[in-house]
Design brief:
By secondary structure, the chain is of the alpha/beta class. The chain contains 11 helices and 10 strands. The longest helix is centred in the middle third of the chain and has 20 residues.
Length: 354
């Protein structure tokens, strides 16, 4: 069991971008942006602290939005977390990052600041807004100067998959401390990520070679192989081996949903995963999180229900991305649409049925 429990906390929907793949407005383009009040934020922090005390964990916040810096109580919130010595990462936009703002974040305990680069300049600015690409790359060094670790994430889909290798070069050149990518989760009427399993495996092979080349050159960027299908790829290439003596029925890796992660929205709504649109399990302003964890969250820990992964030897370490599966077909336990592994055994449900 991990020491820290991660709360991805969307304190506001306010944002100065309207990204084409944003979850907030995916189902309702005319949605009114929500924001928490100061008293509600204090209540959420107390609820999260209670949760961690019950389960012997330490809280870790991923503060996001929208763009969290736009919340009028952004700085008082960071000051409260600093007093409580609760570590946090901020996931936001680049537009309001100055040397003074980043230095203040660092002083209050910010460990990482995550930005997004979703294509080269034309593609990224099409996803987000004109000027976003150049501003994002410029602000990486602003973050670094403050002593905060700069993290860059790419959301990969059929629209930008061919640009990912060049994105890697661009963010390394800009001085990013960490780089990773994850796949687009279909929302709204669109249910196709635009990538076949073979295309995605080919991307992993190209990126693996590029990561290794950059590492050999001595660059300072850490390449986080975040997507759980990296486990399958590394298993096939010999970089990952099944540990000897692994206990049957244990979960050792893969998706954190149901294990060490919850999402809280500006309305207080609690989601098992922000990327799973129908995963609401309660409300942090009305429900005790510690109770939700052993009641509503059980629906996301039924590992034998994975239709493909339960019959795979990599199930305890991989399971692909259930959010992508849920986005594509509405079923959290469906096979990952980009998983290329062929199984010659029964599925988890067939095994359960005997």
């Amino acid at each position: 069991m991990k020491q820290y429990f991660a709360f991805q906390w969307h304190i506001t929907d306010d944002c100065d971008q309207r990204c084409k793949h944003c979850y907030i407005f995916a189902e309702n383009a005319c949605k009114r942006p929500d924001s928490m009040t100061w008293e509600q934020m204090r209540q959420v922090v107390a609820n999260c602290e209670d949760f961690c005390e019950v389960y012997g964990r330490l809280p870790y916040f991923y503060i996001t939005g929208g763009d969290p810096i736009l919340h009028p109580d952004f700085w008082p919130l960071l000051e409260m977390l600093a007093i409580k010595r609760i570590p946090f990462t901020i996931m936001g936009n680049p537009f309001h990052l100055t040397d003074a703002a980043c230095a203040r974040m660092k002083r209050l305990g910010c460990e990482k600041y995550q930005l997004s680069v979703d294509g080269l300049e034309e593609t990224h600015d099409w996803f987000r807004k004109p000027g976003s690409y150049r501003t994002t790359l410029e602000k990486i060094r602003t973050i670094n100067r403050a002593g905060i670790r700069s993290v860059v994430m790419t959301t990969v889909s059929g629209t930008n998959i061919h640009e990912v290798p060049a994105i890697i070069d661009a963010v390394v050149g800009a001085g990013a401390n960490v780089y990773a990518f994850a796949r687009y989760c279909p929302t709204g009427a669109e249910k196709d990520t635009g990538m076949t399993p073979q295309q995605y495996r080919d991307l992993l092979a190209v990126c693996d070679a590029k990561f290794k080349a950059w590492e050999a050159s001595g660059c300072d960027t850490y390449f986080n192989r975040k997507d759980h299908l990296w486990t399958l790829y590394q298993y096939e290439t010999g970089a990952f081996r099944l540990p000897a003596g692994a206990e049957e029925g244990m979960i050792y890796g893969g998706c954190n949903c149901g294990n060490c992660h919850l999402t809280i929205l500006p309305t207080g709504d609690v989601y098992a995963c922000r990327r799973v649109q129908n995963s609401r399990v309660g409300n942090a302003l009305e429900d005790r999180l510690a109770d939700l964890w052993v009641s509503e969250m059980e629906a996301y820990r039924e590992y034998g229900r994975f239709k493909k992964c339960a019959g795979c030897e990599l199930g305890p370490w991989c399971r692909g991305c259930p959010a992508v599966a849920a986005g594509a077909g509405g079923d959290f336990y469906a096979p990952d649409p980009q998983c290329w592994k062929k199984l010659n055994c029964l599925t988890g449900e067939e095994l359960a049925e005997g």
